[in-house]
């Protein structure tokens, strides 16, 4: 078999033969229009079918002549175009790979060549179509600069190209996305084969990348499907794209193989997104409040939790619409409204001596926190409501912290200067690091309910809770335990030194009018 499936096999793949150089030239690195009535295509000796046929077809279509066996990795200098070259045939300027339009043309040309060769004999075998997205390329560009991002794109292209002998068809479809069609050789046409191919490719991309004077560890996600003789090319691309989206939602750095259920899920998400876009101006979102209490059972504050009640779809769980709001960017206007409403509640509480001490915690998503207007949005909401900033707590997860440390530190410092308190939510379940705790202006840690739930029966969970409590005490941080549901859990937490609690033992999330804050 010509394609490597395992990490060890991929690592041993030799550099590409000169045949790929010729194909790459024909697909995207041709130097100009040929002179004369018809284009001439000078192919190096040894370039055989079907790759040679595909190259010849694309070269003839473009009306270009090869100028030797140029490297497929060479890109046109920025700002310079080949003379008389049709725009559709230009390669990607960063990687030198074909673009989407050239890739689609090549796929069709290869299909036509395969059908012509096998006419009356059989049908072309299935080929693996894989879409690969480089994870967090935008964050890399923002933090280290586009020069480093471009170097990573070029390095990723090299690694993908070098994974196959005979060569695969590879293109750069967009900012962080590559497409790859396996060579025209028999592959075991089942999902494990696709999964193994995808994993092997990601293994290549996980190898350290040397840039910015050091070693960078970067990842990618992949979606795969089969391109069969009877499947339209655009359908196969949609299937691979759906699988790639699933891989990204699963946490990235993984492979997903297309399943028919993904199409139904995509349609449902599209329907939900349409409703979500209408829900923002229609103000269909509501806040529910869960009390936070101290050792004596006195309510000291609450957490505001977002709920969506759609007139058409009914009550929709946050786990369904929050990720969609994140992906679509709608979380910014939604989050802005949540902070504004929370400040209005604090203003109402401040009018009563019995409730003026209460704090209110609001969850902030990574996308919202990194938005350029976020700090100003918070300042304006506080100013409009006329409340003390110290009564507002903004809860961020560890995903916010690790996304872009310099930007996060700047935003946190600006919020701290406003007087707003910052809480690190779900501490211990993400990328917990003591190094960032000492650099960030945090006021509070929250122990995740996962540890609280099992600490009475699992000594390891109890050890985590004990460690977090000691850490918060040593760093002079306030500590809240989430998910407290039994008196035994509260008693153990109290004995360990945690004095603030939140959970069903003290109350479920309820609308404001049902919240009991005065005993």
From TrEMBL:
<dbReference type="GO" id="GO:0071111">
    <property type="term" value="F:cyclic-guanylate-specific phosphodiesterase activity"/>
</dbReference>
<dbReference type="InterPro" id="IPR035919">
    <property type="entry name" value="EAL_sf"/>
</dbReference>
<keyword id="KW-0812">Transmembrane</keyword>
<dbReference type="InterPro" id="IPR000160">
    <property type="entry name" value="GGDEF_dom"/>
</dbReference>
<protein>
    <submittedName>
        <fullName>Bifunctional diguanylate cyclase/phosphodiesterase</fullName>
        <ecNumber>2.7.7.65</ecNumber>
        <ecNumber>3.1.4.52</ecNumber>
    </submittedName>
</protein>
<dbReference type="Pfam" id="PF00563">
    <property type="entry name" value="EAL"/>
</dbReference>
<dbReference type="GO" id="GO:0052621">
    <property type="term" value="F:diguanylate cyclase activity"/>
</dbReference>
<keyword id="KW-0808">Transferase</keyword>
<feature type="domain" description="GGDEF">
    <location>
        <begin position="125"/>
        <end position="260"/>
    </location>
</feature>
<keyword id="KW-0548">Nucleotidyltransferase</keyword>
<feature type="domain" description="EAL">
    <location>
        <begin position="269"/>
        <end position="519"/>
    </location>
</feature>
<keyword id="KW-1133">Transmembrane helix</keyword>
<keyword id="KW-0472">Membrane</keyword>
<keyword id="KW-0378">Hydrolase</keyword>
<dbReference type="InterPro" id="IPR001633">
    <property type="entry name" value="EAL_dom"/>
</dbReference>
<dbReference type="InterPro" id="IPR029787">
    <property type="entry name" value="Nucleotide_cyclase"/>
</dbReference>
<dbReference type="InterPro" id="IPR043128">
    <property type="entry name" value="Rev_trsase/Diguanyl_cyclase"/>
</dbReference>
<dbReference type="Pfam" id="PF00990">
    <property type="entry name" value="GGDEF"/>
</dbReference>
<feature type="transmembrane region" description="Helical">
    <location>
        <begin position="55"/>
        <end position="76"/>
    </location>
</feature>
<dbReference type="InterPro" id="IPR050706">
    <property type="entry name" value="Cyclic-di-GMP_PDE-like"/>
</dbReference>
<feature type="transmembrane region" description="Helical">
    <location>
        <begin position="20"/>
        <end position="43"/>
    </location>
</feature>
């Amino acid at each position: 078999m010509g394609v490597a499936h395992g990490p060890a096999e991929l690592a041993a793949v030799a550099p590409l033969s000169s045949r790929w150089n010729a194909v790459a030239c024909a697909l995207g690195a041709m130097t100009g229009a040929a002179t004369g009535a018809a284009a001439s295509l000078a192919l190096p000796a040894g370039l055989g079918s079907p790759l040679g046929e595909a190259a010849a077809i694309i070269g003839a279509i473009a009306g270009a002549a090869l100028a030797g066996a140029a490297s497929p990795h060479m890109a046109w200098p920025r700002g310079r175009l080949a003379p008389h070259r049709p725009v559709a045939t230009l390669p990607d300027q960063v990687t030198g790979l074909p673009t989407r339009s050239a890739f689609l043309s090549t796929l069709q040309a290869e299909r036509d060549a395969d059908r012509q060769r096998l006419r009356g004999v059989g049908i072309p075998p299935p080929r693996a179509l894989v879409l690969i997205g480089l994870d967090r390329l935008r964050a890399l560009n923002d933090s280290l600069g586009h020069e480093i991002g471009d170097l990573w794109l070029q390095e990723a292209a090299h690694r993908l190209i070098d994974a196959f002998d005979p060569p695969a068809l590879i293109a750069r479809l967009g900012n962080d996305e590559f497409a790859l069609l396996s060579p025209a050789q028999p592959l075991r046409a089942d999902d494990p084969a696709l999964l193994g191919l995808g994993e092997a490719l990601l293994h290549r991309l996980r190898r350290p990348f040397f840039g910015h004077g050091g070693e960078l560890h970067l990842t990618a996600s992949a979606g795969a499907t089969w391109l069969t003789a009877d499947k339209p090319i655009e359908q196969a691309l949609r299937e691979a794209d759906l699988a790639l989206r699933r891989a990204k939602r699963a946490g990235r750095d993984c492979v997903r193989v297309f399943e028919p259920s993904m199409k139904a899920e995509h349609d449902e998400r599209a329907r939900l997104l349409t409703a979500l876009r209408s829900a923002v101006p229609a103000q269909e979102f509501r806040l529910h409040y869960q009390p936070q209490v101290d050792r004596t059972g006195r309510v000291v504050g609450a957490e505001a939790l977002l709920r969506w009640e759609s007139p058409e779809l009914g009550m929709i769980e946050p786990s369904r619409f929050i990720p969609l709001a994140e992906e679509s960017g709608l979380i910014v206007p939604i989050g802005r409204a949540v902070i504004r409403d929370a400040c209005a509640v604090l203003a109402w509480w401040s009018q009563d001596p019995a409730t003026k001490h209460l704090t209110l915690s609001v969850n902030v998503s990574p996308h919202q926190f990194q938005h350029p207007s976020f700090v100003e949005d918070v300042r304006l909401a506080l100013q409009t409501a006329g409340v003390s900033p110290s009564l507002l707590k903004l809860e961020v997860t560890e995903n916010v912290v690790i996304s872009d440390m310099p930007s996060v530190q700047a935003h946190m410092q600006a919020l701290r200067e406003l007087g707003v308190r910052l809480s690190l939510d779900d501490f211990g379940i993400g990328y917990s690091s003591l190094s960032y705790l000492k650099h960030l202006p945090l006021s509070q840690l929250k122990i995740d309910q996962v540890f609280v739930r099992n600490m009475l029966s699992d000594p390891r969970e109890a050890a985590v809770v004990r460690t977090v409590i000691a850490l918060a005490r040593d760093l002079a941080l306030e500590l809240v335990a989430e998910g407290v549901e039994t008196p035994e859990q509260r008693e153990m937490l109290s004995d360990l030194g945690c004095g603030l609690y939140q959970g069903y033992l003290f109350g479920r999330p309820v609308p404001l009018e049902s919240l009991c804050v005065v005993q």
